[in-house]
Amino acid sequence: MTNLFATLAQILANTPFWVWLILLFLIWRGLGSTVPRDAGLTRLLLMPGVLLCLTLWSVLSSGLSTAILAGLMLGVLAGIAAGLALEHRNPAINLGNGRIRLPGEWTTLFVILVVFATRYIRIVAGIMAPALAASAPFLVVMGAFSAFNTAMLVTRTVLRLRVMLAPAPLAA
User: Which of the residues 11, 75, 106, 143 has an alpha carbon 20 to 30 A from that of 150?
Assistant: First the structure.
């Protein structure tokens, strides 16, 4: 157990400082989603767009093995289902004039942290245990996690975009 803590301490100590700054920024952005807020097109598309690009870059840099593709397929299907369920339960409201009101929720913060952790684990595994990082089970799990979170956010964004682009409600 002492060896495990020593290894974890070594990993954390050797993580570049800028990584922790990114994590703090992501936590700040995620906490912003816990309160109701109004959003325009840019705010709506920014985070899912960044995560989609990050996932695509991560997948393409790993190569398109059968294991990664299997993980991606599982993750995308589960992510779409989760996105549909979450948005149905807590939908955005069209405010008109190209703006929507997004409800406060903790899912976005959780997803951001999982995406960060997934990338962090992949990088650490690639450095410390290259054989593990190249193994099919590891690639399936990493692909599934990445695809799940990205597909869930993209699905929610598409549904919110539909609300935003729908005819504005009439004022009472």
Answer: 11
